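User: Hey, quick favor. My workstation is busy. Could you predict this chain's structure for me?
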Amino acid sequence: MANLDDLDYWTTKTVGEAQWKIQEVSEKASLRLGMRDFLLRNRPVDDGPCLQVKKCFAACDGLCAKSQFIILKDEGYWDELIDRVKPTVVVTDCFYCTKGTQYQLRVQLLSADFKVLRERCSEDLFMNGSKHGRWREVCYSIFGCPPGVRYIYFEHRGQNVNERNHKGVRITNTSITLKFTYTVGQRN
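Assistant: No problem, here it is.
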């Protein structure tokens, strides 16, 4: 079972016997993945600190979901900044699927009263892994954050649908970046 420290800041949901486990990432995969801060602050991804990824979350024995609810104000983004500059929200996630596993990503931009203002979801694009799994990166960009966004809800799910597959979906290297482009003298 996962050490609770490894799941800090995440809300987890599982069905039946399903559980999240913490697994080591192979050295070869670790070099390709490169870990970054979860919430990057308006800097190109290439400029972020890049460390070796050593661990990942593995969804085992059924459907597992893991989510975060981000309060933008608590992260230093005041309401007027979001409303006037309308940043691009970029969500990146790395996952590993083999045959008989599925992965899903959902991102919602929410108002102060928790209404969904914008959403990206891969539920129509459920990834079904190949026989020989590999790490993949998924990246969603939500351009022009609508006025009124106060929260970001992020959820990814993993499931092994083939009972013979005990490896499960592996997920790591999740990040959310707010990209601001504001020209001096610009008026809204």
